[in-house]
Write a structure and sequence with these properties.
Blueprint: E1 5-6, H1 9-13, E2 22-29, H2 35-44, E3 55-59, E4 65-69, H3 74-77, E5 78-81, H4 93-107, E6 117-122, E7 127-133, H5 139-147, E8 150-152, H6 177-199, E9 219-227, H7 228-236, H8 243-262, E10 273-281, E11 307-315, H9 324-339, H10 342-357, H11 359-371, E12 375-381, E13 387-389, E14 392-401, E15 408-415, E16 418-426, H12 433-451
Parallel strand pairs: 5-6, 10-12, 12-15
Antiparallel strand pairs: 1-4, 2-7, 2-14, 3-4, 6-7, 8-13, 9-16, 10-11, 13-14, 15-16
Helix pairs in contact: 6-11, 7-8, 7-12, 8-9, 8-12, 10-11
Length: 462
């Protein structure tokens, strides 16, 4: 008999009621779903063989959580929906799936009488929905596991290739006295700001503000789609900019546009701060985990939850003649964050608190930070090439998670030249998330046109 394995401190944190998190990864395919083919693919994949995915969550007499190995019955984890999710014929497949996921994000925890994962086959909408509890691993680990069920379209014998595997997660610095002073200064500033957020400092209320208890409110989801080539074109216009800089630039611009639409005149002051929380991968590789090494404990590709928290402030600005200013401000802010040790420090402090005082105290310290900020965001780089799931060409991949006290939660995943930003909102605060999604898309178009006025107007993605 194998002994029970204790949960990691991060895994225990995600089981607390206020932070209970399930990651939902939707994969839409071109052809009708073949249940038997997918069942065979799932059964032969890494998922039912990985120790975490074939273990029950159990609690001992003191209430401490453990993993207990068990046999996996694939049919208990495979949930088939034969009927359309909506009776409204005007609702598109994408909108139907988004509404379904939005409902799951608040009202449908994973049952604990089986390992904490399941796959929904939405037959009428040609979509596979993978649901994994965050206690099993973080977004990087779980996206890697999801892709283990897929193959490259140009070579079905090969797993998808993941950008960034083997690359360093942090940029190598050329150390000097001045660099050291800047690192120390920006780290101290970050810790001071994080402490203020924990104690009392809160974003001024706007039309996108959440707060304590908002994680229980009903949700809606909309999707903003971006061509990676457009983001790269904008990126190249600013020296040393990255895709993440462009993402935060367009979010800053898009939120400013949305607030101009929804807020009453003069309700916002120029330069008002709107703070986001981002989760940063702290593994040795910058991309997803090497799919060929998910079962290899000696590979150095550490499984589980290993990410740090960054607070990323953006600022409201009224209609500007130069939209590229949003990108330049975002790059300046992110460059300062890169100079600090905020992400690894936040991870190690949280790990220490969890180890010493348990998940309840750690939750009490993390939850106020979420209540006092305005949105959550993550960005995962997916496969560059087109892929197939059970021999079925994949149209898109999208990810979101259970709700948090934020009114806006955003997760971006790129696949085959397109980046999809899933925007989950508290619908009583943001009743029309498609308006917000369009503000983000228009922000990128405006930046692209500012970079190259001679380029033809970009056509929407269909």
């Amino acid at each position: 008999m194998e002994r029970d394995q204790p949960l990691t401190p991060g895994g225990r944190l995600f089981l607390q009621p206020q932070l209970d998190q399930v990651i939902n990864a939707a994969i839409a395919v071109e052809l009708p779903l073949d249940v038997d083919a997918f069942r065979a693919e799932l059964k032969s994949s890494v998922i039912p063989k990985h120790p975490r995915f074939c273990s029950l969550l159990v609690r001992d007499a003191r209430g401490r959580e453990h993993w207990r190995r068990t046999a996996v019955d694939i049919d208990r984890h495979l949930i088939i929906h034969h009927q359309p999710l909506s009776d409204d014929p005007s609702l598109s497949d994408e909108d139907s799936v988004n509404d379904f996921i939005a409902g799951l994000s608040v009202t449908s925890p994973l049952p604990t009488d089986k390992p904490l994962w399941e796959v929904h086959l939405l037959m009428a909408h040609r979509t596979m929905l993978f649901r994994f509890h965050h206690a099993l691993g973080d977004g990087i680990s779980l996206m890697s596991m999801t892709l283990s069920c897929c193959r490259r379209a140009d070579d079905p014998t090969q797993l998808p290739t993941i950008a960034g595997v083997g690359a360093a997660a942090t940029t190598r610095r050329s150390w000097s006295l001045w660099t050291l002073l800047m690192v120390v200064w920006y780290t101290l500033v970050s810790v001071f700001q994080l402490t203020l957020r924990l104690l009392w400092l809160k974003d001024k209320a706007t039309a996108v503000s959440g707060g304590a208890g908002v994680e229980l409110w009903p949700r809606k989801i909309a999707t903003a789609r971006f061509r990676l080539q457009d983001m790269k074109t904008v990126k190249q216009a600013v020296a040393n900019a990255t895709i993440n800089d462009v993402l935060f630039g367009l979010i800053s611009c898009g939120l400013s546009r949305y607030l101009d639409i929804t807020e009453s005149p003069n309700a916002l002051r120029e330069g008002q701060q709107i703070t986001g929380v981002a989760m940063v991968n702290l593994r040795s590789q910058s991309g997803l985990q090497d799919l060929s090494k998910l079962m290899d404990s000696e590979s150095g590709s550490r499984w589980g939850n290993k990410f740090g928290m960054l607070m990323l402030p953006i600022y409201y600005h009224r209609e500007s003649s130069d939209p590229m200013q949003f990108l330049k401000r975002a790059k300046l802010m992110i460059d300062k964050k890169k100079m600090s040790f905020e992400a690894p420090l936040s991870y190690n402090i949280s790990y220490l608190l969890m180890s010493l005082f348990g998940p309840r105290i750690a939750c009490l310290l993390n939850y106020p930070i979420l209540c006092n900020t305005s949105f959550t965001i993550s960005n995962v780089v997916g496969p560059k090439e087109e892929i197939m799931a059970a021999g079925n060409p994949v149209k898109y991949m999208r990810v979101t998670s259970s709700s948090l006290p934020h009114a806006i939660t955003m997760h971006m995943v790129s696949y085959a030249g397109v980046a999809d930003l899933q925007i989950m909102v508290a619908k009583d605060i943001i009743p029309e998330p498609k308006v917000l999604a369009k503000c983000f898309q228009d922000a990128l178009l405006q930046m692209k046109e500012a970079v190259d006025q001679a380029a033809p107007h970009l056509q929407p993605i269909v």
